[in-house]
Design a protein that fits this description.
single chain; mainly alpha; two-stranded antiparallel ribbon; 61% helix; disordered N terminus
């Protein structure tokens, strides 16, 4: 059933973070247009365009990708020099950070932040994602596009699908299989589960090769096989089996934690949208997203995804323009009375964990019934 107000059908958890205009809940302006102009988003787009924030930044990406490439080359060189040594676990930890940065690079390529044309973006994405990371670019593109179209939508956003973790009380009441057990303790298990995320991305990539939505299954399958042939071949050739397995555990575990620490704070714990809820594009993106404050180090660590609201509104906007767009967007939301959420990194994780605990409550209650 469609809801009559902008926020009907949205589950909003308690927030311990800063929101601009907390008195403006957005209900009255859910689908309104600003007087005397087009949609509210078109007016924001005009202001962003006037500030010249959608222009490509080739120098920035040249420097950034070169730095990541040098870090990758340095990690491989250190791996070859150290040989069969437990010191390789330090290389594994460093390589986890490099893989995280490669993931962020693949993300920017997918959104055409680097190149305006599709072909160079796809070639770059295949090289970075499939060859260097061991993750299917085509599978991830499909999944991430659906997320951007309907963030935090219970039935349409694959990032909040109740596969293992439940993201709402409604999902908890309908949970079956592993989600039913894990959901009871998911707040405590969240970070341990993130250590498996790197492996999950690779497993999901191979599984997706059979999907009809994959455009180049043979090419991507070959690239993925090549990646893991080099990865496992190098490890088990140079290291003893025990050291190789330890290397994989440290590398993949920290890589998963890094990715989770980058992506989880942006939407987890923000309002969940039910089927039938009507929101315009501006409010759908702003109300379900959270920005993470923290300065230059946070910008580098999160690759600009700490400006999640602006990224969702303007996915092709280059990373270095997001900070200026944030000022314009927050000011504009204040004019319209739309809540604009910002939080520190630690506080955002605290909110996400509290939301997970609240979402899993029906499962714990069911377990206590006689």
């Amino acid at each position: 059933m469609a809801h009559s107000t902008a926020l009907a059908g949205i589950h909003s958890p308690d927030e311990d973070e800063k929101q601009t205009n907390p008195q403006g809940d957005g209900r009255k302006r859910g689908r309104e247009k600003s007087p005397g102009r087009g949609s509210d988003f078109s007016e924001l787009s005009r202001r962003i365009a006037e500030a010249d924030l959608l222009r490509r930044r080739p120098l920035y990406y040249t420097v950034r990708f070169t730095a990541v490439g040098l870090a990758l080359a340095g990690s491989v060189a250190a791996f070859l020099v150290l040989g069969d040594s437990w010191s390789q676990l330090l290389v594994a930890a460093a390589l986890a950070v490099v893989f995280g940065q490669l993931g962020l690079a693949a993300h920017d390529l997918a959104h055409r932040q680097v190149f305006s044309r599709r072909r160079p973006s796809e070639i770059g994405g295949l090289v970075v994602a499939d060859v260097l990371l061991g993750m299917s670019y085509g599978w991830w593109m499909n999944k991430h596009t659906r997320h951007h179209a309907n963030p935090n939508h219970e039935n349409k956003d694959p990032d909040v699908a109740p596969d293992i973790i439940v993201w709402s009380r409604r999902q908890a009441r309908q949970a079956e299989g592993p989600a039913r057990f894990i959901g009871k303790h998911q707040a405590a298990l969240f970070f341990p589960l993130l250590t498996l995320e790197g492996l999950n991305l690779s497993f999901s990539s191979f599984r997706a090769l059979r999907s009809p939505s994959m455009k180049r299954p043979v090419l991507e399958g070959a690239l993925l096989v090549a990646h893991f042939a080099v990865y496992f071949g190098g490890l088990f050739t140079l290291l003893s089996p025990g050291k190789a397995l330890a290397f994989i555990a440290v590398h993949q575990g920290l890589f998963g934690l890094y990715l989770g620490s980058v992506f989880a704070p942006n939407h987890k714990g923000m309002p969940m949208i039910e089927e039938g809820t009507e929101l315009d594009f501006l409010r759908r993106q702003v109300l379900t997203s959270r920005n993470v404050d923290g300065g230059a180090l946070t910008d580098v660590f999160m690759g600009g995804l700490n400006y999640q609201i602006e990224h969702h509104l303007f996915p092709s906007m280059p990373t270095p323009a997001l900070a200026k767009a944030q000022v314009i967007t927050e000011r504009y939301c204040a004019e319209l009375g739309i809540p604009y959420c910002r939080s520190g990194l630690v506080a955002s994780h605290r909110t996400a964990l509290r939301h997970l605990r609240q979402a899993g409550e029906p499962l714990r209650e069911a377990g206590h019934r006689p």
